[in-house]
Amino acid sequence: MTVVTSPPVDSPGRDHQDAYAVSAEFYDLLQAERDEARVRSLYRDDVGRARVGVVDVGAGTGCVTLMSLLESRVPVHAVEPARCMRTPLMTRLASLSAELTTRVTVHPYALDEAGLHGVADVAVCHNTVACLHPAARRALWPAVAEALVPTGVLLVQLPPARLPRHETTHALPIRTVGRHEYGGRMVTSADVDRIRARFEYWVRDDGRVLRRHDETFWMWPATRTEMIAELERGGFIPLPERSDPSVLAVRRTRP
Ligand SMILES: C[S@@+](CC[C@H](N)C(=O)[O-])C[C@H]1O[C@@H](n2cnc3c(N)ncnc32)[C@H](O)[C@@H]1O
User: Fold this and answer.
1) Residue 106 shares a structural domain with residue 188
2) Per-residue pLDDT tens for 150-182?
3) Of 19, 29, 79, 114, whose Cβ has the fewest other Cβ atoms within 10 Å?
4) Do the domain assignments include residue 4?
């Protein structure tokens, strides 16, 4: 099965219904373990300092949302427009204690459609902006600024700075569930001004492939300097560089 997921240029960010239709089945199985450790090390201290709320922009299956609930005592807003990703997100939240679920609200919209005003002093945008068409990306920053209180902080995982020179293959971990093995790979390559990221998944039984699926996403590169300029126009000022340069921290300018 092949699904190509690409935002139409004339209505960026509005084609969310079927995005991740293939990948959602495999997402947590093949990526969550690594992602959980990574988001904890990248954002735990920031969400631990939150006193108003945390916004998880592009919550996906809820990796940052869960970490934010565990590491803070404030309300958490999980913003996730794609139904296919919200489904595992809701399943993850359903397994939590009432103390945690009372603090989390799921917004089934793109952030600029969610109507959030001053609900948080920390916003996290992890593994999300790379997949946004530049027009959709630029539309995101004023919406993040609006969702934050004055002086609120935004943490953005930066997109790739440039197009890849060669096709690159990255193997996903192999996981066993009962009699079956699950695995896959991500193949990235340049396509004019975009990066094609093709996720290929397989399920095997005793070495025999039972099924294969793939889904293609598009990513748009932007350098750190370009991102800072864009965020400044969107109402933010950069904070000092962090120990991990893959994340850019910016603060909302006062109105
Ligand atoms: C690659 S997933 C990453 C999910 C999660 N942050 C993670 O790291 O596992 C990116 C998510 O951003 C969501 N997204 C795309 N545009 C968005 C927007 N304008 N506002 C909020 N979420 C958006 C997508 O639906 C998708 O679930």
Assistant:
1) no
2) 999 999 999 999 999 999 999 999 999 999 999
3) 29
4) no
d(CA 216, CA 39): 24
Task: Check pocket membership of 12 for ligand 1, CB cut-off 6 A.
Answer: no
| Residues sharing a CB contact under 8 Å with residue 124, sequence separation 6 or more, in sequence order | 39, 43, 46, 47, 54, 55, 56, 57, 64, 68, 154, 155
Are residues 246 and 124 part of one domain? Answer: yes
Per residue in 109-146, pLDDT tens? 999 999 999 999 999 999 999 999 999 999 999 999 99
Q: Measured between alpha carbons, how far is 108 from 150 in angstroms, rounded to an integer? A: 25
- If one counts the domains in the chain, the total is 2
Single out the residue of 162, 180, 173 nearest to residue 222, CA to CA.
Answer: 162
CB distance 28 to ligand 1 below 6 Å:
no
Return the closest-CA partner of residue 77 out of 95, 97, 94, 54.
54
Q: Within a 10 A sphere around the Cβ of 18, how many other Cβ atoms?
A: 12
Q: Is the pLDDT of residue 183 over 90?
A: yes
CATH of the domain at 195: 2.20.130
Same domain, 21 and 67: yes
CA of 24 to the centre of ligand 1 (A): 12
The CATH code of the domain that includes 87 is 3.40.50.150
Q: What is the DSSP string of 45-68?
A: HHHHT-SS-EEEET-TTSHHHHHH
- Identify the domain containing residue 234 by its residue range: 13-161+222-252
**Closest atom, ligand 1, to C-alpha of 125:** 6
- Name residue 175's beta-bridge partners: 182
CB 250 within 8 A of CB 156: yes
Across the beta sheet with 180-191, the strand order is 2-5, 208-219, 194-205, 180-191, 168-177
- Report CA 130 to chain centroid distance, whole Å: 9
